[in-house]
Design brief:
The structure holds two protein chains of two kinds. Chain A is an alpha/beta fold. Chain A is built from twelve helices and nine strands. Chain A has two domains: 13-177, P-loop containing nucleotide triphosphate hydrolases (Rossmann fold), CATH 3.40.50; 182-280. Chain B is 50% helix and 9% strand. The chains are: A alpha/beta, B alpha/beta.
């Protein structure tokens, strides 16, 4: 059972090693990296490559650790008690299972994705220490201990918005997805758009990396933006030389809206391109 | 041997724990990696280092500890000759090709190159300086840099691993260095965290329902802190002269953080704070704001951030009339003190490296006036600064 990338996902050697070590040693793998470098996608790809179901838990700023375990639906119970429903006598009727519980109770190993763990409250990771370490938790309402039948393969992604506590980090493996270099990028594009015209690809990649080099951009375009942009280029059937155009009137690459996502960046980019062109003339 | 490695990492100030070390051992025992140093590098990095800011430190420590080891693991240098030939032919001019012929042709050249590599291995293991710097050797002249020769990395992976940590690609993620664009973003997030705190005065509906239910239907109100963004910030940016390079960076930093703050006001000054500040640097002579007005207008719960390199003549701070802009009746220090008396939460960000501060008298004076609350604009520095502001 080894992960080797897939037909739709290019994994570098170190990433494969990280995934396989995490699978073998049954530790959660914390994945960081620039937005759009395929952190979330990784879990999906590993799940499909290893033939396991994928459970996703998307963390928001309001998410509590408890919600991943279970929630006690007090309101329904209150309502039922007023209606004289018999179910009200058994508290377990009002325990709603969270994603973690579902993952623990599967009959075969699953892949569990805890997406964007840094979005939640600072205490969030601390509240999951025991759950991730021992893969068990206690349900106070029913006095029952829930233990994982099989330790799930846990992927945790982070965008670095908050620092994660040391105790939490110590229990995880860590991998930082670097922004792919030109070669890897070509492979990634090939996987997504097989048979894309070589010249177009070369020109597009050149432009793309040039745009990334522009200092002071608020949001550098990432892999997912490149893929979107290529899709547009293909759909519009833009000829490769349009990208190479040194014409002063067309200083901006076509359909750049897919690459640069805010006005200031576009503005800055225009200004810089214009300046270099000027100095060249 | 590996315990030594562990201690080396500790020495390099990487936060490693014994538990993580044991995990690494477990991984080795379970055989999750092939016995190659490259795989070991990745495995040890993923188990021991949990922050990309520490990757560079790790690379250095790893390189230092395993220096020379890579040559033990059966490293012979593979020269994909055909590839080299093709590559060279592409780039060489006819004259250069003739020169090669003059030296006895390709075979000879390759042989010399191999010999050179051997020699060098004996002298200092694993290094490749000799070829790299031998600009007058045929290898230099014809563009045989060692990287090029070892492009056939896939064949000798042991060597390619050396490159991974020797390249130190994570250098710009180290939090001791100055802010880059990426680092800038992360620093901004530090600000956001600090902007998110507020007073506890919001009705917690879920909690109320929950507690009411537990209380057998009697209303029991729960309160919780609200996520509020009430942080108010006044910024004073030093502009002109030595600060111009830095100020753009700082402006970027804080204009981007504008959405995070409900109240963010900024003003410019030159070198030190005096009677006037201004908002538009081009019209600094016409449109000035009196510092007194600022003290009266903004309430004392504003937090103050000065940005400046604090490099000037000490007179500019200590003496009346010291300003380079105009004649000031009161010394800069007096104005600084006035500001600090009104606003208790104040810090000074200094884009100059912390090491050089002690060599500048003016920096020392400002630091003293600020009660030591001067921080460098590195990520670590900004973090400390935000902590000081939050205290």
């Amino acid at each position: 059972m080894r992960f080797q990338g897939s037909s739709t996902y290019v994994a570098t050697d170190d990433l494969m090693l990280a995934v396989n070590a995490a699978v073998t040693l049954e530790r959660p793998l914390l994945v960081k990296g620039e937005p759009g470098t395929g952190k979330t996608k990784l879990a999906e790809e590993v799940a499909s490559a290893l033939g396991m179901p994928l459970l996703e838990w998307h963390v928001k700023s309001t998410t509590k650790a408890q919600q991943g375990l279970y929630e006690y639906d007090a309101v329904s119970r209150l309502r039922d008690s007023q209606l004289g429903d018999q179910r009200v006598k058994d508290i377990s009727n009002y325990i709603v299972k969270g994603t973690l519980w579902q993952a623990f109770s599967y009959d075969k190993p699953v892949v569990l994705l805890i997406d964007e763990v840094d979005k939640a409250d600072i205490e969030f990771p601390n509240d999951l220490l025991r759950e991730l370490d021992r893969m068990e938790f206690f349900v106070y309402e029913t006095r029952e201990l829930v233990k994982a039948k099989h330790r799930p393969i846990v992927f945790i992604t982070s965008n670095n918005e908050k620092e994660l506590p040391d105790a939490f980090l110590r229990r995880c493996f860590f991998h930082y997805i670097r922004f792919p270099d030109k070669e890897t990028m070509e492979k990634i594009v090939e996987v997504h758009y097989p048979g894309i015209k070589q010249t177009l690809l070369r020109e597009a990649l050149r432009t793309f990396f040039e745009v990334r080099e522009v200092p002071g951009l608020k949001k550098k375009p990432s892999t997912s933006e490149l893929l979107d942009w290529l899709k547009l280029l293909l759909a519009e059937d833009i000829p490769p030389d349009a990208l190479r155009s040194q014409d002063n009137k067309k200083i901006i690459p076509p359909l750049h809206g897919a690459l640069l996502k805010n006005e200031q960046d576009v503005h800055l980019f225009e200004k810089l391109v214009f300046m270099t062109r000027q100095s060249r003339n | 041997m590996l315990a030594g490695f562990f201690l080396k990492l500790k020495e390099a100030k990487i936060p490693v724990s014994i538990k993580e070390y044991l995990t690494l051992m477990e991984g080795m025992k379970q055989g999750v990696i092939s016995p190659s140093i490259e795989d070991f590098y990745y495995l040890s990095r993923m188990t021991l280092v949990k922050d990309e800011a520490n990757y560079d430190k790790f690379d250095k420590a790893f390189g230092a500890f395993f220096h020379g080891v890579e040559t033990l693991v059966g490293a012979q240098i593979d020269l994909p000759l055909e590839w080299l030939l093709k590559q060279a032919e592409l780039h060489l001019s006819p004259e250069e090709k003739a020169a090669i012929e003059g030296m006895g042709g390709w075979e000879k050249l390759m042989e010399t190159l191999k010999q050179r590599l051997e020699e060098q291995k004996e002298r200092h293991q694993g290094g490749n300086k000799m070829i790299g710097t031998a600009g007058t050797s045929p290898f230099g002249a014809f563009g045989y840099n060692p990287e090029g020769v070892r492009i056939g990395q896939k064949k000798s992976r042991n060597r390619s691993a050396v490159k991974v940590w020797d390249q130190r690609e994570y250098r710009n993620l180290d939090d001791k260095i100055e802010l880059g664009t990426r680092n800038l973003k992360i620093a901004l997030r530090r600000l956001r965290r600090f902007a998110r705190e507020g007073a506890p005065d919001e009705l917690d509906l879920d909690g109320t329902i929950n507690r009411t239910a537990k209380n057998a239907g009697y209303l029991d109100i729960a309160m919780r802190p609200e996520r509020r963004n009430t942080v108010k910030v006044l910024m004073f940016l030093d502009i002109g002269g030595s600060m111009d390079d830095h100020i753009k960076l700082c402006e970027e930093l804080f204009s981007a953080s504008k959405t995070e703050f409900k109240h963010l006001e900024y003003f410019y000054f030159h070198n030190c704070l005096y009677d006037y500040v201004w908002k538009d640097n081009k019209r600094r002579r016409e449109e000035r704001t009196r510092t007194w007005d600022i003290l009266h207008k903004y309430s004392h719960d504003y937090k103050i951030i000065f940005v400046g390199d604090a490099s000037m003549s000490p007179y500019e701070i200590l003496e009346p009339g010291g300003s380079v802009e105009y004649h000031n009746d009161e010394a800069g220090k007096v104005w600084m003190q006035r500001m600090l008396d009104v606003y208790h939460k104040a810090i000074w960000l200094n884009p100059e490296p912390e090491e050089v501060w002690s060599y500048r008298q003016s920096t020392q004076i400002i630091k003293e006036v600020m009660g030591n609350r001067m921080f460098p604009t590195t990520i670590g520095g900004i973090e400390r600064a935000m902590r000081a502001l939050n205290k």
